[in-house]
Amino acid sequence: MCDSTPDSIFVNVCYKGISTHMTTRNFDDIEKTANMCVSLKQDRQYACVQGAIESLTRFVSDDLANNFCNKLPEDLRNQCNNRHDQLVEDRY
After folding, report:
1. 52 vs 6, 7, 38, 42, CA distance in Å?
2. pTM for the whole thing?
């Protein structure tokens, strides 16, 4: 669905949005979201991770957000942890 978005500028926004909704509906199974993000084309993966980590950090818990990041391959894990740190820092 996202790849067929007519304006390519919105493709990553679509992936981010889908992972945000999937995460809030399945926060008890974060592995499902992590697997979805990793299964995407490499240039779409971070948008997916970004939506998930933002949702987990803002609406669920930091512990679950950390667990999510730890389920990712190292390159995505680092990006995920960096985004999580930014979100936590922005609270204060």
Report:
1. 24, 23, 12, 16
2. 0.89
